[in-house]
Design goal:
Elements: H1 10-28, E1 47-50, H2 55-58, H3 62-74, E2 79-85, E3 88-93, H4 95-108, E4 123-127, H5 139-157, E5 161-168, H6 173-185, H7 191-194, H8 198-220, H9 229-234, H10 238-252, H11 255-279, E6 285-288, H12 289-292, H13 295-305, E7 309-311, E8 317-320, E9 329-333, H14 341-356, E10 360-366, H15 370-383, E11 391-396, E12 399-400, H16 416-431, H17 440-460, E13 468-469, H18 472-475, H19 483-500, H20 515-537, H21 541-559, H22 570-593
Parallel strand pairs: 4-5, 4-10, 5-6, 10-11, 12-13
Antiparallel strand pairs: 1-3, 2-3, 7-8, 8-9
The chain binds one RNA strand of 77 nucleotides through strand 9, helix 15, strand 13, helix 19 and helix 20.
RNA sequence: GCGUGGUUAGCUCAGCUGGAUAGAGCGUUGGCCUCCGAAGCCAAAGGCCGCAGGUUCGAAUCCUGCACCGCGCACCA
């Protein structure tokens, strides 16, 4: 058994400390690897250990064992009571003793805020967002952006050295579609003349292309007896041919085409920058596909020479997937020598490996690409054995709306910028009365902070694997498991502390030994472990859950007579102020990790 | 067909790697403002944990099969 250092997780350290003599006893009796004490599943005790599994080794009834180790546990100064029931050992903390340590810990030790050395020395690169520069970002991108950003925060908090990457998809046939539409119908518009954010203007022409293409298709096959639309596009479609010609011209460096591409991409990236800034999402490096898409060809060539790949009759290069336990082949370079999506990904991975010397690379990408990443990682492992086991796909499910999935064809896609503004407006509206006396700028600042808190918390509170339904009204509710609820708890803690003033006596920790106090301390103790779990599992929902638990426990605390601060006896006041201060700190920190503003007043 | 994720309260979701009576939020019902901000708190009702087997002292959790739902299995991205 390894006892976690106190610098990692207070609760785990506390448990390890109390467990140590029990575990030693069990080992001595012949139990191999006895577990530490855990959370009880019944009301009452603070820690528990089921003893049934030791029955065989000790040749005693579970209840007898529980009684025996109970005697050992009872001797510990942090333990007030040890009882055996149904073969379980149940322990109760000596809460005044625990309280003194919890408050001191939370107020002074960074580990209380989730700092740890779990991943110390690890270099991690994490890629997220990775937008196409042909249309604005939507709700799905929000989930990606926030997952990536928050996971990066969690990893850093666990001691990893993190490099945040954004691979901007700024070239290719899809980009040429909006360029062609702009050439045909743009009329020299700019974001300024159109009064649109750059990415929205570009997106308008992407939609315009689709409209024209559909019209062309319909005109060509009025009876609906045509080929698949994709086949038409890649075949005889005039618009398809023009688009491909544009791509060839771009790749050939045609100055006029490149100039248009630069112009429109610039608009789009400027628009994205605004979206990221508002969302609080950032990167340490932006990689552009246009600058690195050729890298893969070299890797493929090397792989061909090394026998990792083989040539198909038409000159295409392929990988035999049976090498990695899959069926069939995967083409990694087209017959005409142009690169595919995977060609680029092979190149960028190798480039990053050389450049960043990472121990681990994480790709935050939706679960529709689960299979693709299995193949990509398999191929990379063959090309570069050093990469085996270092690549992770942080897959996530899609976001749906109360009335079903987002469909661009049906215009039900929720735009990221619109959504943030929408939430802002909703908050401002519901808070209008409350903020009546407030300066406009301050009201707006709060509405923005609360709207974003709602969005972020809601998007992160689900297990990433899961598809969930986004309900905007629910997300900004101040009741329930939401970001604003946690913000509110923080604001209340702030105002309470301001009114309480500085304690004048030594803390009387026994004043926290009641249901609301114990509940709050339990929540505070659990926080660091949740941050660590979030980092290890690349799952921010552990953090949102733990943060909400603290906020809820605090709400119960300050609403109960036992949590009364002002007017309390001096020693009790000191203890409660300490606890509230610790709570406020953890709340602020948890909100910060989620990229949420911790407001002092709401 | 194969792979993969899901199936837990009316709704939306947890369940920390097998434990004792399965949790939370919303919604519903009923309480609490001469009391640190009621955007709050307290309480109640509400479940054959998709189905069927198996392993175990003990299963929502592990194994097998089945049923639905989603996503994949391109010289697309």
């Amino acid at each position: 058994m390894t006892a976690p250092a106190e610098a990692r997780d207070f609760r785990a350290a506390l448990i390890a400390e109390i467990s140590a003599p029990i575990v030693a006893f069990l080992v001595e009796q012949g139990v191999s690897e006895p577990p530490a004490l855990g959370a009880p599943t019944v009301e009452g005790p603070d820690l528990a250990m089921p003893c049934h599994r030791f029955a065989k080794a000790l040749r005693k009834a579970p209840q007898q064992i529980a009684l025996a180790i109970g005697e050992i546990a009872a001797a510990h100064p942090l333990v007030a009571k040890a009882e055996a029931a149904n073969g379980f050992l149940n322990l109760s903390f000596s809460w005044p003793a625990v309280a003194a340590r919890v408050v001191a810990f939370a107020e002074a030790d960074p580990a209380a805020l989730g700092h740890s050395d779990l991943l110390a020395g690890q270099k991690v690169v994490i890629e997220y967002s990775s937008p196409n520069t042909n249309k604005p970002q939507h709700l799905g991108h929000c989930r990606n952006n926030l997952l990536g950003q928050t996971i990066a925060n969690l990893l850093a908090r666990a001691g990893a050295s993190v490099t945040r990457l954004n691979l901007v998809n700024d070239r290719g046939i899809h980009i040429c579609k909006s360029m062609l539409a702009y050439q045909r119908a743009g009329g020299g518009q700019t974001p300024e003349t159109a009064g649109l954010k750059g990415d929205h203007l570009v997106g308008k022409f992407y939609v315009e292309f689709d409209r024209q293409f559909s019209a062309e298709y319909k005109a060509a096959f009025p009876n609906g007896d045509g080929p698949e639309k994709d086949a038409w596009f890649n075949g005889d479609s005039p618009l398809g041919q023009q688009t491909r010609a544009l791509l060839r011209a771009w790749e050939a460096g045609d100055p006029e085409v490149v100039a248009l591409w630069r112009l429109m991409n610039g608009w789009c990236e400027q628009g994205f920058a605004q979206t990221y800034a508002r969302m609080g999402v950032g990167f340490d490096r932006i990689e552009r596909e246009s600058e690195i898409y050729q890298l893969g060809k070299k890797i493929v060539e090397d792989g061909l020479n090394d026998g990792v790949f083989y040539k198909l009759p038409d000159g295409a290069v392929a990988f035999d997937q049976t090498k990695i336990g899959l069926e069939g082949k995967k083409v990694v370079l087209r017959g005409d020598g142009t690169s595919l999506y995977i060609t680029q990904d092979l190149g960028t991975a190798a480039m990053r490996h050389d450049k960043d010397q990472f121990d681990r690379a994480i790709y935050v990408v939706g679960n529709e690409q689960d299979h693709y990443f299995k193949v990509l990682f398999g191929v990379l492992g063959e090309l570069r054995p050093a990469l085996r086991g270092r690549l992770t796909h942080r897959s996530y499910g899609m976001v749906e709306l109360p009335d079903g999935r987002m469909k661009s064809r049906e215009g039900t896609v929720v735009d990221a910028d619109d959504l943030m503004s929408d939430l802002h407006a909703l908050v401002a509206e519901t808070s209008a009365e409350r903020w009546a006396g407030l300066e406009g700028a301050e009201a707006s600042r709060r509405a923005e902070a609360i709207g974003l808190a709602g969005l972020k918390f809601f998007l992160l509170k689900f297990n990433p694997e899961r598809t969930f339904i986004f309900d905007k009204h629910n997300s900004i509710a101040i009741e329930g498991e939401t970001g604003p609820y946690c913000q509110y708890a923080h604001a209340r803690a702030t105002s309470l502390l301001a009114k309480a003033g500085a304690p004048t006596a030594a803390p009387d920790w026994a004043a926290l030994d009641n249901a609301p106090g114990r509940g709050l301390m339990t929540a505070l103790m659990s926080f660091p472990g949740a941050v660590q779990r979030g980092a290890l599992q690349l799952d921010p929902s552990h953090l949102t859950g733990a943060l909400y638990d603290v906020a809820k426990a605090f709400s119960s605390f300050y609403n109960s007579a036992d949590g009364r601060v002002i007017g309390a006896e001096a020693g009790a006041l000191a203890a409660r102020v300490g606890l509230v201060r610790a709570t406020r700190k953890v709340l602020a920190e948890g909100l910060g990790l989620l990229g949420i503003t911790a407001l002092d007043e709401m």
